[in-house]
Amino acid sequence: xxxxxxxxxxxxxxxxxxxxxxxPAAAARELVENALDAGxxxxxxxxxxxxxxxxxxxxxxxxMSAGELALCVLRHATSKLADDDLIRIATLGFRGEALxxxxxxxxxxxxxxxxxxxxxxxxxxDGGAVSAVGPASGPPGTRVxxxxxxxxxxxxxxxxxxxxxxxxxxxxxxRRLALAAADVAFRCERDGRxxxxxxxxxxxxxxxxxxxxxxxxxxxxxxxxxxxxxxxLRLSGFACAPLVNRAxxxxxxLVVNGRPVADPTLRxxxxxxxxxxxxxxxxxxxxxxxxxxPEELDVNVHPAKAEVRFRDPDxxxxxVIGAIGRALAGGAGLTALAPRFAPPPRPGxxxxxxxxxxxxxxxxxxxxxxxxxxxxxxxxxYHGPFATAPAPxxxxxxxxxxxxxxxxxxxxxxxxxxxxxxxxxxxxxxxxLTHEALREQALAGGxxxxxxxxxAVVDLPQSDVARLLDHTAGLARLGLEIEAFxxxxxxVRALPAALGAPDPAGLLRDxxxxxxxxGEATALDAKLDAVIARMACHGSIRAGRRLGAPEMxxxxxxxxxxxxxxxxxxxxxxxxxxxxxxxxxxxxxx
Length: 590
Prior knowledge:
- With 590 residues, this protein is of the alpha+beta class.
- The chain has three domains: 9-201, Histidine kinase-like ATPase, C-terminal domain (Heat Shock Protein 90), CATH 3.30.565.10; 210-336, Ribosomal Protein S5, domain 2 (2-Layer Sandwich); 346-590, Ribosomal Protein S8, Chain: A, domain 1, CATH 3.30.1370.100.
- The protein is 32% helix and 24% strand.
- Helix 13 crosses helix 15.
- It is elongated.
- The N and C termini lie far apart (87 Å).
């Protein structure tokens, strides 16, 4: 008896649905891509219940006749391949599986009318059962409504996240498509509320509208060309100046031949292009558009078409890195550029906790809030941004030595007892101190708070507001007290005392991104260190602040008594040391 059997068509379609339509965002993306391929100039998307209850996509594209409607819900039926060539793909979709897959897993209805036709026609698919095509009313174009997604495949449905999270994923997918097609008007609604409504506009205007005013003010044009195997690769778009960066790569839009992708080759190139000018762990904000002949890439390597395979990945990577590098070199915000060749902290320099000195406890932790001490000027014959301290005798029990000067209002120069020089990054160092102080307080039961005299109102995207409000109790234990303040805003009543007076908007935005990246199911306690690291960065002494001799000395002493003080919360070194022998070798004395 044979054990091999052919599966029923309904089961085949449901398997295909699981591969192509893994969540509401995938269904919405497929429907919008169909609209774009149909030449739509305006697309409207409305969802309810995270897209699980309803996805409604309307467009003014070419529309379909009654005969085409009957074919569009059959597997492997497509209008997007003019012949059997699977290499030269010039459309966003081509497999002919999206509509039958959606119809196999949900209740699907399609109403369409070609331009110039007297009437529209409609067809429906309910869990794989296809109705006959019938007359209907409707304007030129196509309207697709998906209801009760995955009702026919309950195993898939139980793995979906909350409606809010699924709605955010749908909106993010539509935003990426709207960025890719700026010449098409887009409207997106979530549970009756308008998320965005954009007219057809220039690419720069579309990017500015979707990335926000901060990014819009820092956009730098990116362009470049490169020959590859006789073909021409063209890159265009915008990259934000380094001072505008994000905690995750969610603000990076990468478009290849009009198709938004999350391609590892392109993401790596963006990371390499920015790594000299932004802190480790941060991500640049870009919207890049790569155009190349269709035969130079394979779009059939990922079920969701999120990745592509380039014929010349090295050429693509080099084009992206070079073009972004040129844009950043000519733009603002490069003052924080850090050399890649800076040596790591010497393994031989051990941080030995010293015995506390009188008066040290009062001068150590509140550096972020302490007023800048008087800076002693240099003699007039010297010029440059130096601040000096009296020349103390370095004590052997202090590995980081005695501070003698502050350079560029950012770095502390100290002389160690062995004659070596220590260079300390004041921001990175104090970031670690703040991190460890907050962590110790949190583990001891709660972070000390500092109520604000005037509560601060912070405007944020509704998704970020909801995400932060979900962690209200946990954030309160960390000294951050927030509450809802209408749609799209939060009221900040208190901040952790150890942070001094950071910008609440920047702090809340980074925390929201941290929660989004780690996932809604992860408890705050499990991501405590990551959240505290984000908070510590906002409460640390900034580069550019002048410090007096007592403050510099207190900073060094507390570094010696703090665990993990050799690096900041982002893994960068907090200090570098040159021994006397190394200095003598640099000057040819040895």
